[in-house]
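call fold(seq) -> tokens
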Amino acid sequence: MALNWVMLDANQRFVPLPRERIHFTSPARTTLSLSTPNSYPGKEPLSISSSGGTAYITNQRIVYLPSLPTTQLQSFSAPIMNLQDTHVDAPFFGANSWTGILKPVSGGNIPAHHAYVKLSMTFKDGGAFDFANTYERIKETIAQAIEVARESGRQQGSDLSDINLEQLPAYEEIGATASAPTAPPLQQPVPVTPTALAHAPQRDSGIVLSSDDERNPKLPSGTVSDQRYPPPDEPPPGYEEVQQSSIADNLERSLRGSH
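ret:
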């Protein structure tokens, strides 16, 4: 983060760094606020603001130029990777704002005792979400390039101008292209008129049997009822003993009755 370090031309437009390219330009009524965050209080709180200006996102940094420069704020810039906890605040009333915590750079006209600074931009004419999406896309690309350089043993310094932001692959949710299983179609109920209901056969539960198959259900092939067995040619086990026992009982009852 640096104050009043952006090079300007004769028309008060900022001069890009070598191989720097602009990826976003906000409307001219975007405000800027730099303050000491509550979580990092300091002895001398910082408070710098602008009621209107233009914010830019390049492939290397964020730049802000106020519409009415002052001695305190003529320009503002911050490296892409020096911001954290960035998010969009969308209130019910009022304009959306983009907020983050910024780590100042050494020699950037910010007192050294300010370890972190709260940055807030309010987009009165819209553009907060576009600004946030562009910033996150560029930051992710730079982070990937730094990680690849670290894994390959190359040192990625502060020069981020060689990173090709156009090679960032489009995000696709895992499994988004796979076709989801479709549920079988539901059977539509068949309306039954009161007359047909009165003459239709019913089960004990009162449910109408709508077809012959329901009235006379058929068991699947291979069940016990479909199988045919030949009649037995001998009595079952223990049949003779039972018969003899039965005859003896009848004879004993007859003898008792005769006496």
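Strands lie at 2-3, 22-25, 30-35, 47-50, 53-58, 61-66, 76-79, 83-89, 96-102, 117-123.
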